[in-house]
Predict the 3D structure of the following.
Amino acid sequence: MVIKKRSIFLFIAILLSVVVLTAIFLAYCSYRYNEIMEVDISVGINEEMYETIGGTQQWLQIRGKDRNNPVILWLNGGPGYSTIPQTFFHVPLEKDFTVVMWDQRGEGKSYAYTGPSIAPTMTIERMAADGVEVAEFLKQHLGVERIVIMGHSWGSILGVRMAQMRPDLFSAYIGTGQVVNLREAMELGYPSILGVARDSENEQAVKELEAAGPPPYRRVNDYIIPIRWANAFDAVAPPEPGRRNALATIWAFFRLFVLTDNSVREGVAFSQNLMLEPMLDEVVPEHGTDFEIPVYFIQGSEDKVTPTSMVRQYYDSISAPEKKMIVLENAGHLAILRNRELFRDALLDIRPLLLTK
């Protein structure tokens, strides 16, 4: 009986020690994370807020080390995939740019505020108009003349529309994972996606892709299958030792996968359900190929969602005061997220052009 009690006490002591040590470890990881995330607001900016955009409350985050840097309004992909929970991984951008991340209606903290009641207003037209209102707010709030638009995937649809609607607000448009015509892109990309699935011997991917068959599809949701697997096979840069504080990164992942509010996940499903079909129906060149502002594309060579060959054709059709297309070798549709150093180098390459506009 005495031995049994001792065993129980020993187990409890070990368990408490593990809990305490884990808590101390995570606390120190959090401390290192906060060090990296800190901004000297005497010269830089670190703000987050709800702002009335398009008649509803939408969430904005503004971060940068130097207020004199070019302001980039990042239009995230998805639709519905807020980039704000991943801010830590993009902190290096903040040295050379003031980065504005915006939870569009139906995603992230904007969705947390409205819930599904926002559904009747979820249209590409309305959301592009929201983007223009965000830019107008930023221009006044930050005291800048013009803003750079950076649209990724779904965000590139909004970005092109915004650039055409109000070129006076913007110094340049940057597209990455640039959508041209997503339905046609999936028809073009399907054989390559299936080929990668077979080459990698991913039985689940092969099964799902072969069951769906090549597009076009009658059911809109079937397009999710090749898109999902294309992103799953997207090129990922190898880790670069020394570029990140390991302990801070642990806390960043803990925040992302454990502490992120459920509204972020709910917003993804909500937005995808409402906006996938309009996204598939969008033919971006139909909004015009003449731009009044410079246009830059940063495109992964291995992009299977918005194939670089299609983007190149669109790029060739564009007339703009200045244009440039940068192709990132061995990168894919998610280069902005998975090949961050390579993407940042491309942005730095065109930064002098952004400063003169």
Summary: Strands lie at 45-53, 56-64, 71-75, 98-103, 147-152, 170-176, 295-300, 323-328.
